[in-house]
Amino acid sequence: MEADFFAETAALEEELARSAALTAGQGEADKKNGSFAGLKKSRIVGSGAEPRAILVSVSTRPRAEQESSLAELAELADSAGVTVAGTLMQRVHAVNPTLILGKGKLAELEVTALQGNADLIIFDGELAPAQLRNLTEVTERRILDRTQVILDIFAQRATSQAGKCQVELAQLQYMLPRLVGKSRALDRLAGGIGGRGPGETKLETDRRRLRDRVARIKDSLEDLRRRRSYVRARRAKGGAPVASLVGYTNAGKSTLLNALTGSDVLVENRLFATLDPTTRRLRFPRERELILTDTVGFIRSLPKELMEAFRATLEELEEADLLLHVADASHPELARHLKSVEDILEQLDLGATPRMLVLNKVDALSTEADEEGLTARMLLEREYPGAFFIAARTGEGLAELSRAIAGRMDWAEPSKR
Ligand SMILES: Nc1nc2c(ncn2[C@@H]2O[C@H](COP(=O)(O)OP(=O)(O)OP(=O)(O)O)[C@@H](O)[C@H]2O)c(=O)[nH]1
Ligand SMILES: [Mg+2]
Question: Is the beta carbon of 267 within 6 A of some atom in ligand 1?
């Protein structure tokens, strides 16, 4: 049964590879006609030095929130292979709808960029198409927003054919409304971080071609979805129960999968290390076993284009009998991370799936007590009474966690799932 599943998945991958090769062929033809070459080939950190960026945040939100969001943007930039050369923060009552920044701040931004020798300007949040266009008119530097950085990381990480298709679709859908009009500024705009975006050229024909390509990719992804749900249905009939690891990016999901199943899945101190769903078996005494799946991590304001494009991947979560919500207990933004993940699960209609809260990285918590004699761990235990406290890296709490998982599974009646 299991072997069937893997064979089926491999066949799917092959099929997608073939259809991608076909569309890539189309891309080559496009290039000869002097137009789009497709998005997938280039990399940010090629042979040259890492690009340098100034991060900009203009917000009406409370200062603490603005700062934490900017700190996360810095992590995202780092994960994308971009060096942060400086930051600029502005707090406003209302965001300037045309340029985001006032004239004075724009001048200051130019100076900061010059001093930092930065060729990129990255805005926290999502720039409206008009803002992006206007900004490109007033500065020589390339302008990106948070969503594009996330898309870029995904583009670098995607390894499977399905993953690549999904990322390309998200990039195209994000860029299409932003590729309008005719100006030299658009050439830069279209370049992405390291030329990974759609290249420069005759935009109108390109837009049409891109829309065609979007339609083609959507078709093959729709096919993937149908096939995967068929495979899932077959697996559910006779197979083991399924537990899925979900959580904020970098929470330690892959580390936990490795620790529990003795596997060697990629673990990295970077955002979005994992993109493709990974499945391993977890064995328990008395010949019982369950399937444990690890998948893409979440982040606050996950771009809707990505959510849409990754539907085939996220739908893998629908078969889960149990969701293990893994979070980094040592992260100062723990509460916000938990909330973001819960919101996304809700959006995916997974609110009703049984869930366990797993607070990871307890080894990284400070052991100092506050004035009431309470340690960080005690405070968390008080705040999240039902949670499991573990350190996937050291193995602490894992035996108890796997006993609890086993206790939650409905082993006896697989047909009911
Ligand atoms: N201190 C400490 N670090 C941990 C622990 N578990 C994981 N990490 C580290 O956290 C980082 C992220 O781990 P991953 O397992 O890649 O996280 P992930 O949730 O799979 O991340 P994405 O795939 O990006 O969503 C790595 O540097 C791990 O070594 C832990 O128990 N304690
Ligand atoms: Mg991972």
Answer: yes
Query: Distances in Å between the alpha carbon of 18 and those of 13, 165, 169, 176, 198?
Result: 9, 12, 17, 25, 22
Same fold, 50-145 and 241-416: yes
For the sheet containing 322-328, what is the strand order?
Answer: 278-284, 288-294, 242-247, 322-328, 355-360, 388-389
The ranges assigned to domains in the chain are 1-31+158-238, 50-145, 241-416
| Calpha distance 106→89 (Å, rounded) | 12
Q: Please tell me the residue having the least CA distance from ligand 1 atom 30.
A: 361
Largest CA distance in the chain: 72
Superfamily of domain 241-416: P-loop containing nucleotide triphosphate hydrolases (3.40.50.300)
Percent over 70 (pLDDT), the chain = 80
Tens-digit pLDDT profile for residues 329-365: 999 999 999 999 999 999 989 999 999 999 999 999 9
Give CA–CA dist 189/200, Å, rounded: 9
Residue 43 sits at the vertex; the CA angle it makes with 39 and 47, to the nearest 5 degrees, is 145
- CATH for 50-145 (3.40.50.300, 3.90.580.10, 3.40.50.11060, 3.20.20.70): 3.40.50.11060
- 324: CA distance to ligand 1 center in Å? 15
What per-residue confidence (pLDDT) applies to 411? 65
pLDDT of residue 417: 44
Q: Is residue 198 scored above 80 in pLDDT?
A: no
Which ligand 1 atom is nearest residue 360's CA?
A: 31
Between the CA of 277 and the centroid of ligand 2 the distance, in Å, is 9
Q: Which ligand is nearest to the CA of 252?
A: 1
CA of 111 to the centre of ligand 2 (A): 39
Q: Can you spell out the DSSP letters for 255-277?
A: HHHHHHHT------SSTT---S-
**Cα distances (Å, whole numbers) of residue 269 to 151, 253, 304:** 18, 12, 25
pTM for this one? Answer: 0.80
User: What is the pLDDT confidence band of residue 52, given thresholds at 50, 70 and 90?
Assistant: very high
C-beta of 254 in contact with ligand 1 (< 6 A): yes
Q: How far apart are the first and last CA of the chain?
A: 17
- Closest atom of ligand 1 to CA, residue 272: 24
Q: Rounded to the nearest whole angstrom, what is the distance from the C-alpha of residue 291 to the centroid of ligand 2?
A: 17
